[in-house]
Amino acid sequence: MTPEELDAARGRIVPDVAAGGLRVLFCGINPSLTTAVTGHHFAHPGNRFWPVLHRSGFTPRRLRPKEQGELLGLGLGITNVVARATARADELDAEEFRQGGAALTAKVERLAPQWLAVVGITAYRTAFGEPRARIGPQDRTIGGARVWALPNPSGLNAHWTVETMAEEYARLREAVADRPGS
Fold it and tell me: Among 11, 19, 24, 84, which has the highest number of CB atoms less than 10 A from its own CB?
């Protein structure tokens, strides 16, 4: 990708990978410019979402971003708190997160996934007014879905390794498997 292609992708909206009745709807913060250029979620080479998803047991093999459509057959999907693409999440303000949280709530009510997994604790805290939220299952539901806050798989999140993220994602996978109707 050229710098010009990336710059032209600012503000683009990337379609969700979603359907009604999913087991888990993974929710990113917002699309990266790489995602906006390719149309594939978590497409930046430094993003660890795809390897973590596989290591945690959600997928039978490591999918590539261009294979994101295969998630639906596994009962999984992807959306974002804020729809517009930026180079970095810190380009978003608190009001965008709050508005995104309201839009996400409506989407979850419509799609009715069993779980909403927000990948980014700061985004979750801001979007839903939960300043003390921690990684893991949350007490609240959103649109009838149970909620789990997961670590952000961005390569910029140095606090978590692929291994430690995979452990946390696996905790969610186990909770999903334990729920009737999974």
Answer: 24
